[in-house]
Write a structure and sequence with these properties.
By secondary structure, the protein is α/β, with parallel strands linked by helices. Helix content is about 35%, strand content about 10%. The protein has six helices and four strands. The mean pLDDT is about 80.
Amino acid sequence: MIFSIIDIVNEPEVSLMSTYERQCRFPEEVPSNFQVFQRYSYSACIIQCRIDKELDLCSCTHYSSSNYYDRYCNLEGFRCLTKNYLKLAKLKIPGTNETGLNCDCLPSCVESDYNIVSNKVSDIRTIRRGAKVQFKLNNKPFERITRQVARTALDLVIAMGSCFGLCFGGSLLSIVEIVYYIFLRRW
């Protein structure tokens, strides 16, 4: 299996944007429905989504979270989880009719992204009493992406000031000078 790692670095201005605009969450931006973990990560969001779905379908959950100790499954609950295994075991791929969890989890802004480049499967008949797994890193050490804000509110003010100066030949000093001549200086 060959995989690549993409490291993501954020400039400070990125944290000032809304999660909707940047399409990711920082670890301290925990959604209100989070009860399992105090910090956000994509995998923590998937776990919370799975627990919520277990509670919705079976009114109980696996014993993987200490926050839900009063709602752990008994034997009937485990039968219900087993019956709904296909709905709980994997994520639903958008745009398909497959069964699975439909979680609206944003990626983390600070976690690295791991991608499988090539997945070669050997002939299973040649493997006798074990399996050989080989992981190779595609690019060494990894690729780094910097997430930055293209335009801020300050950029808008600067652009408007530049436009005013270009079109009218004015500046902030010209405006102050006009106010000075009108109100403070008597002829």
